[in-house]
Amino acid sequence: MLKVEEQQPVQFSAALIEKSEEIVKRYPEGKQKSALLPILHEVQAELGWLSPNAMDKIAEFLSIEPIEVYEVASFYSMYFLKPQGKYVLEVCRTGPCCLVGAEKLMDHLEKSLGVKENEVTPDGLFSWRGVECLAACGYGPVLQIGPEYTFYENLNEQKVDDLIQDLRKK
Amino acid sequence: MARKLLLEHINVPDIHTFDVYRQKGGYRAVEKALKTLTPDEVVEEVKKSGLRGRGGAGFPTGMKWSFLAKPEGVARYLVCNADESEPGTFKDRYLMTHIPHALIEGMIVSSFALGAHTSYIYVRGEMMPQIRILEKAIAEAKNAGFLGKNILGTGYDLELYVQPGGGAYICGEETALLESLEGKRGNPRIKPPFPAIAGLYGCPTVVNNVESIAATVPIINDGGDEYAKIGIGRSTGTKLISASGNLVRPGVYEIELGLPVEEFIYSDEWCGGIANGKRLKATVAGGSSVPILPANLSLKLANGDPRLMSYESLSEGGFATGSMMGSGGFIAFDEDQCIVRNTWNFSRFYHHESCGQCSPCREGTGWMEKVLHRLEFGHGKMSDIDLLVDVSKKIEGNTICPLGDAAAWPVASAIRHFRDEFEWHVNEPVKSLDTNYGLANYAEPIAKAVSTEN
Question: What is the ipTM of this complex?
């Protein structure tokens, strides 16, 4: 059963539709399905996550079946199929970052935010999760924040606390 | 100082802009290729250079290009693989961030060589900042007449687009990447047919790594023969190495192939030694997929000769005593690191990233992760160690794509070289939770430490 928020009708902004139309032009005629991954990113950037209604709308826009959107959105790790915090802090948890303290950093993040991995803080501002290698192994520990995937490198507990403070003030 | 071909101008302010890149001699390779060479001549130069794919497989780029089918009236595609996701590897991110036009220039030269008129750079979605950088660079190049219709008045047309991925390691495998670019799940395809015959949209396609494509620029500028003079034996040219782990100066370095591993780790020109005055315990030379080696075998071959950073030397001794060049993701482990924990971490990665198509990989990676988890957290049995070897052997070679092998090798090699550390975890389940096995004999001179092949 879908929750109420998951059934809300969605509206794409004019800018989003214009951007999506521009993306479709990158591919040969009839290959508009190639635009699916980029458009999923655009929609998630605007709405914060990909609700079933949002995915249905994308399917309609690209003239493909809704299942073709669901199966893709659920395959790739960057797409959120549940609502998230406004800021999702994604910490690299793979080998090289762990050699330089990523695991301790995640423990600290859990304490600082007061929520477990994949949970949202009560004010709706933050969620966090460990993600696999972000290809920045020489600058670890690292974390990223969507939708522009701003990167924070060579982190320690102090830097993470400062970052959280800065985001709270925004 | 070692010769730099890709990163020569990396410290020039604003080298990421078209104007500065051009002032520093950028886009000469496009002018030379389009105005004075035929596509076949460009392919010939790349063949002569001996350039080998920089993404991990090390297959000769020129040969890969020559396999491209050229049926009349059918579009051909060049797709750049910028889905850099192999743990330990971050060179492509570095190149695209700081000198994006090197990739754009290489894409134009390579697309011309292959007769492609639409090319894509598939960048992993997490690299959104790099996607923005590339999009800007493409707009600048187009504005200057190096992309679009009738480039430099030569009659050659090329459109170049950046495609974001969705966060999936498997899309670094070229056929999974093509599936993803077609807007599907990243499930690798069964080969044959290879992409050179039926790739993107069923058309002949070449997929090359970022660094391979960027390397075509110095190859065209100076000629393939000049490029081949750099390096050692069949490992020609320069290679970007991503150095991470417990090093004084981790980062991206451009080396001439053939540099001794010991010099790379300890010289102040490179990584500057092991951080915090610790000693080296182990290395993974080419990204998480390649076999891990103890310190002694990292620095020396089994016969005691120095090991070099080259395709041949890194794999010298096969899997019994060697490793692989892979993507050049060089990870150094200091004496405080636990091999069991790291192996568990890597196998969690492969389990997470397995696409699920082939049973040996889908089930085997999860099984290995589970067994390694219990070994690391004090619940392991002695028989688990051989169980891991058994599972890894049943994955290896039994899958559509190389992810299965990539998941099996780190586990098999860790047990091959560090079996006593695994056994210690079983014998000391409580102690191993908060202390480490330490350096043991892993840095001892070779003769003592070569383990028996299992």
Answer: 0.96
